[in-house]
């Protein structure tokens, strides 16, 4: 998703979103389940959220929807959920990849068109969004948002007019789009899930009694008491209708799979399982690899909450250095990495974390974190540890240095904002004030996920598909 503030595409940070869908064949209202599912996916986006529902036994194509800026529990009060009655529905949490943070850009998107209604929620990024949008506008399309998700929704609606089924319209649309996408789509009588052929974005299937569920992560299934069935396969379109059966078909493409490694390093929740791999165990393995690669004499291994904790435990187990908690986290402050502006990121670090002085005073600390993007956050944490009496701080990072932008929806900014693109490891170590610094060797990255084929383009520029020839921010400034 890539719009700009002065026309349709924004030069801001890319996002990660969460999608959720449920179809209760017994006719029960699903909005409370969507609420809890989105709450479990809140870590994937904190700027806006939305829910769209319909009643499969009511007037065909009548969709009730509500969306707003803020967290799920801020936007949806009990009275609002009661208004959203229906037995089929989808939901979305957003951190903007494209478009400004306005309620117009919140999802799900709901379209009313010749064949009825369509609601869509999207996680991911299209690399040919600007090209497709221009083509559509030249044929009379009028867009109401600045997000590339509307391009997908409009494409499906346009193709549906000439297709026998919505699935056929989706198949025609995905032939035109390039990039990363996990979609949940609600037509008047169907719930549909779509995953891009590379498998870049996660999507899984669950079941609770007589209800089918789709979600970005398995933790959202657990939150509503649903059983995990399986992941949606890369390139698969799954449909649930009134028969209660799962219908599956695949896009007629054969590409090399490229699952986003950043899900396992940072984005996914610790209790999720994605493509048969436990996120927790992947991070434990990452920490163990760091301990083997960068041993150091130290008294305590600590992780940066939350995504650095499991890797720190893995480092501790492999090295034999005790694991401890160096920070208290204020749970009511959001994630610093997905704050919209640098100023907000910097100010929220100190509000979010405070050092446990009695734990670190007089000790040599190994501090494990998932990544260094700009270096500001880790520098602040090292300063806080030293002020609390830590004698040494050795930093270990469970990802390689970020060198290239991501075009597929992960919050990796342009090259000029990536500290590793213009500084050596030693220069970064000096700049952040660490006694030593070790990144995950890129050749060891695969160990986290076994034989799962991964995309690691933000580290080595080997993109799984053709991407813009120059950095997207440069394109937008021209």
Automatic annotation (TrEMBL):
One of its GO terms (molecular function) is magnesium ion binding. Signal peptide: none annotated. It comes from the Bacteria. PROSITE patterns: GATASE_TYPE_2. The keyword DNA damage does not apply. Mg(2+) binds at residues 307, 369-370. Its cofactor is Mg(2+); [4Fe-4S] cluster. Its EC number is 2.4.2.14. Keywords: 4Fe-4S, Glutamine amidotransferase, Glycosyltransferase, Iron, Iron-sulfur, Magnesium, Metal-binding, Purine biosynthesis, Transferase. It catalyses: 5-phospho-beta-D-ribosylamine + L-glutamate + diphosphate = 5-phospho-alpha-D-ribose 1-diphosphate + L-glutamine + H2O. It holds the Pfam family GATase_7. Binds 1 Mg(2+) ion per subunit. GO terms for biological process: 'de novo' IMP biosynthetic process; purine nucleobase biosynthetic process. Residues 17-243 form the Glutamine amidotransferase type-2 domain. It is an enzyme of class 2 (transferase). [4Fe-4S] cluster binds at residues 260, 406, 455, 458. The active site is at residue 17. Pathway: Purine metabolism; IMP biosynthesis via de novo pathway; N(1)-(5-phospho-D-ribosyl)glycinamide from 5-phospho-alpha-D-ribose 1-diphosphate: step 1/2. In the C-terminal section; belongs to the purine/pyrimidine phosphoribosyltransferase family. Catalyzes the formation of phosphoribosylamine from phosphoribosylpyrophosphate (PRPP) and glutamine. This is Amidophosphoribosyltransferase.
């Amino acid at each position: 998703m890539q719009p700009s503030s002065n026309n349709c595409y924004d030069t801001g940070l890319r996002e990660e979103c969460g999608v959720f869908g449920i179809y209760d064949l017994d006719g029960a209202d699903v909005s409370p389940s969507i609420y809890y599912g989105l709450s479990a996916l809140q870590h994937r986006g904190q700027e806006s959220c939305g829910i769209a529902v319909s009643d499969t036994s009511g007037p065909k194509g009548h969709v009730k929807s509500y969306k707003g800026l803020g967290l799920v529990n801020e936007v949806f009060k009990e009275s609002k959920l009661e208004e959203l009655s229906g037995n089929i529905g989808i939901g979305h949490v957003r951190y903007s990849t494209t478009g400004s943070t306005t309620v117009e850009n919140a999802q799900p998107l709901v379209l009313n068109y010749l064949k009825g209604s369509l609601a869509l929620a999207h996680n991911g990024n299209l690399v040919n969004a600007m090209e497709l949008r221009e083509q559509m506008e030249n044929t009379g399309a009028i867009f109401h948002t600045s997000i590339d998700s509307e391009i997908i929704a409009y494409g499906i609606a346009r193709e549906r007019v000439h297709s026998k089924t919505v699935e056929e319209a989706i198949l025609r649309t995905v032939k035109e789009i390039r990039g990363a996408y996990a979609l949940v789509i609600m037509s008047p009588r169907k719930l549909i899930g779509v995953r891009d052929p590379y498998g870049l974005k996660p999507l899984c299937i669950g079941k609770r009694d007589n209800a089918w569920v789709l979600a970005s992560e398995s933790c959202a299934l657990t939150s509503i008491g649903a059983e995990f069935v399986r992941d949606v396969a890369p390139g698969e379109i799954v449909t649930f209708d009134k028969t209660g059966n799962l219908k599956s078909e695949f896009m007629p493409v054969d590409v090399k799979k490229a699952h986003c490694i950043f899900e396992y390093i940072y984005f996914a929740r610790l209790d999720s399982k994605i493509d048969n791999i436990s996120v927790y165990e992947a991070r434990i393995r990452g920490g163990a690899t760091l301990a083997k690669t960068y041993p150091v004499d130290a008294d305590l291994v600590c992780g940066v909450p939350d995504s650095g904790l499991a890797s720190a435990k893995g480092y501790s187990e492999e090295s034999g250095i005790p694991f401890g908690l160096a920070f208290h986290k204020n749970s009511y402050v959001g994630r610093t990495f997905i704050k919209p502006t640098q100023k907000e990121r910097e100010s929220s670090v100190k509000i979010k974390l405070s050092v446990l002085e009695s734990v670190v005073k007089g000790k040599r600390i190994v501090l494990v974190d998932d990544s260094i993007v700009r270096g500001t956050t880790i520098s602040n944490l090292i300063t806080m540890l030293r002020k609390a009496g830590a004698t040494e701080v050795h930093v270990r990072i469970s990802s390689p240095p970020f060198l290239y932008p991501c075009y597929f929806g992960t919050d990796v900014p342009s090259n000029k904002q990536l500290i590793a693109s213009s500084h050596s490891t030693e220069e970064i170590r000096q700049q952040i004030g660490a006694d030593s610094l070790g990144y995950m060797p890129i050749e060891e990255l695969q160990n986290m996920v076994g034989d799962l084929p991964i995309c690691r383009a933000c580290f080595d520029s080997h993109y799984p598909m053709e991407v813009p020839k120059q950095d997207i921010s440069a394109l937008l400034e021209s």
